């Protein structure tokens, strides 16, 4: 398979779209946790109950078309290969917890993969809506529409005082996690993140790495999300998060401006050195690749590099993960083989950008 075709098939369609403030906010996500009344929570449920829930979703949602969503496809986790499950995790479409399921877990995916409904994960239902850029309000609106749609077919486990009942007490209440993925190289380079993270935590929010709890902030990408789900409405939680994100956007832009003003030459040198590593390496580990991709994306956003798409960071941070590398290779790879394949894929992707740029220039001169 050619790299062009692989990218077209591998990258979720929503990821190629631009969104508000997408130079800093890569994506916005709303996730709602729900359970079905009169069924035991998934952590203690029987296989028969889990199977019933999967069948319910299969009967009601598969092959049906919904306004603004299109059709859903049902993926049954126990029918997927290990590499396929890992790819879904790397695309943020399912959780690592669901990927480990060996019985009756599943996932309903919309055609553009912006909507993912996990079934029999930690809770019976986890609705996830992803939007490009800074679009938390839009994500919440879409999630609420899906929530209402599902509630036409099932009764949720709900308590008048506590709200939605969930397997984990930290989700009780709204059952909502709102989050944004942010690229913050300016704040990292100016050594402000170590001060900002504790301040964010004091506001009832949490800062994590690219793959959530316990993950590392590779490529200067941070996930900011709410911790509180009880005692506030969904709208209040989203507004609180939006307020903090707006401040981070301002601070990141200010940090980038300061770097250009005080050390532009050194910054350009760093960007082009990282570009050189990506363009010529024959073997590269994931951490180094993430750091270099972050530098190149910053160079694109600051106008140092003009002939590469700004989506390069989003794409390659996904495509160079172990699951994708093995899918592209057509089978399992040892760590060193993955590092070699990662370097090759990045070189080929940059060559595609160069060729596209030359084609565009040729088209302009005709």
Automatic annotation (TrEMBL):
Question: Kinase as a keyword?
Answer: yes
Q: Which residues bind ATP?
A: 27-31, 92, 126, 177-181, 208-213
Domain Phosphagen kinase C-terminal: from-to ranges: 24-255
One Gene Ontology BP term is:
phosphocreatine biosynthetic process
The answer to whether keyword Transmembrane applies is no
Motif RDXXRA motif of the pArg binding pocket involved in allosteric regulation positions after renumbering to this chain: 338-343
SUPFAM superfamilies given for it?
Glutamine synthetase/guanido kinase (SSF55931)
GO CC annotations?
Answer: extracellular space
EC top class named in words: transferase
Task: Write down the InterPro entries for this protein, in alphabetical order.
Answer: Arg_Kinase, ATP-guanido_PTrfase, ATP-guanido_PTrfase_AS, ATP-guanido_PTrfase_cat, Gln_synth/guanido_kin_cat_dom
- Activity control mechanisms: Appears to be allosterically activated by the binding of pArg-containing polypeptides to the pArg-binding pocket localized in the C-terminal domain of McsB.
Q: Which PROSITE patterns match?
A: PHOSPHAGEN_KINASE (PS00112), PHOSPHAGEN_KINASE_C (PS51510)
Under Enzyme Commission nomenclature, its number is 2.7.14.1
Give the catalysed reaction(s), semicolon-separated: L-arginyl-[protein] + ATP = N(omega)-phospho-L-arginyl-[protein] + ADP + H(+)
- Gene Ontology terms, MF aspect: ATP binding; creatine kinase activity; protein arginine kinase activity
Keyword field:
Allosteric enzyme, ATP-binding, Kinase, Nucleotide-binding, Transferase
General function of this protein: Catalyzes the specific phosphorylation of arginine residues in a large number of proteins. Is part of the bacterial stress response system. Protein arginine phosphorylation has a physiologically important role and is involved in the regulation of many critical cellular processes, such as protein homeostasis, motility, competence, and stringent and stress responses, by regulating gene expression and protein activity.
Q: Which family does it belong to?
A: Belongs to the ATP:guanido phosphotransferase family.
Q: What is this protein called?
A: Protein-arginine kinase
Native organism is Bacillus mesophilus
Lineage, opening ranks = Bacteria, Bacillati, Bacillota, Bacilli, Bacillales
